[in-house]
């Protein structure tokens, strides 16, 4: 159709060889597109200088003990990786968190949203599947959606983070959502993810995901079908 969509298709076809299909840019799922440009081998890695870094919260900006305690509630172990060292089990490479079994690996420069996202991938899995995870936790769209949803909720349990901030960081990092932002997706298009988590008893107790700014309609209300 347009030049843009041709280019996108080319990128997708290349990406599909390297990434899970649900991360393909043209796939009409509710969420998912991580920042291909920063991870595609066709582009040089983005330098990790402060000026070039997307303005997102990183592990060094919060108390690591808080992150460790949160993961511990789910029987996950946070393993700190030395500055500059490769992160074991990182699907996206570079500074993004990695998962192997019940361990979540992160560096001080790992974005908080990445730590939460990869942790949630493990949290949503039954124990026997969790034990088998190495690097790539799932091919399931609903597990991907559920991980995104849960990471937004769990951000509220990290002092200095919060759901609003993590949703902004997700947008800045390049997650793409059909409704244009993580907040819009969370409020209006994530009913299936919420229901899936509820069925499995994985919704955290807290009722408010957001003290600092309204999310539009109450995020915990039933949402409309996606299509
Ligand atoms: Zn994911």
Task: Report what the structure shows.
With 227 residues, the protein is mainly alpha-helical. It has one domain. 39% of the residues lie in helices and 5% in strands. Zinc ion (ZN) binds next to helix 4 and helix 6.
Give the strand tally: 3
Biggest sheet features: 3 strands, mixed
Backbone structural class: mainly alpha
Strand order of the largest sheet: 1-3-2
Bound molecules: zinc ion
Percent of residues in beta strands: under 5%
Helix content: 25-40%
Distance between the termini: 23 Å
- Count of distinct structural domains: 1
- Output mean pLDDT: 77
Give the SSE string: HHHEEEHHHHHH
SS summary, helix count:
9
Question: pLDDT below 50 for ≥5 consecutive residues: which ranges?
Answer: 1-30, 34-49, 207-227
- The best one-word shape is globular
Q: Give Rg in angstroms.
A: 17 Å
Please specify the SSE layout and strand pairing.
Blueprint: H1 3-18, H2 36-39, H3 64-73, E1 77-80, E2 98-100, E3 103-106, H4 112-123, H5 127-131, H6 141-155, H7 163-173, H8 182-188, H9 191-199
Parallel strand pairs: 1-3
Antiparallel strand pairs: 2-3
Helix pairs in contact: 4-6, 6-7, 6-9
Zinc ion (ZN) binds next to α4 and α6.
Summary of the model, kept short:
The protein is mostly helical and 227 residues long. It contains 9 helices and 3 strands, in the order αααβββαααααα.
């Amino acid at each position: 159709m347009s030049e843009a969509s041709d280019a996108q298709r080319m990128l997708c076809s290349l990406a599909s060889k390297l990434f899970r299909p649900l991360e393909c840019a043209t796939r009409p799922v509710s969420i998912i597109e991580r920042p291909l440009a920063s991870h595609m081998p066709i582009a040089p890695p983005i330098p990790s200088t402060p000026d070039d870094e997307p303005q997102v919260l990183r592990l060094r900006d919060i108390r690591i003990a808080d992150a460790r305690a949160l993961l511990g509630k789910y029987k996950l172990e946070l393993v700190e990786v030395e500055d500059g060292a490769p992160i074991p089990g990182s699907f996206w490479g570079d500074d993004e968190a990695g998962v192997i079994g019940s361990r979540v690996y992160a560096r001080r420069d790992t974005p908080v949203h990445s730590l939460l996202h990869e942790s949630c991938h493990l949290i949503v899995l039954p124990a026997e599947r969790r034990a088998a995870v190495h690097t790539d936790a799932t091919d399931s769209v609903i597990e991907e959606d559920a991980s995104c949803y849960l990471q937004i909720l769990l951000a509220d349990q990290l002092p200095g983070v919060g759901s609003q901030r993590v949703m902004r960081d997700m947008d800045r990092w390049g997650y793409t959502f059909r409704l244009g932002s993580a907040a819009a997706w969370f409020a209006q298009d994530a009913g299936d993810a919420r229901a899936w988590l509820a069925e499995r008893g994985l919704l955290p107790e807290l009722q408010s995901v957001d003290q600092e700014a309204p999310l539009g309609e109450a995020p915990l209300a039933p949402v409309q079908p996606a299509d």
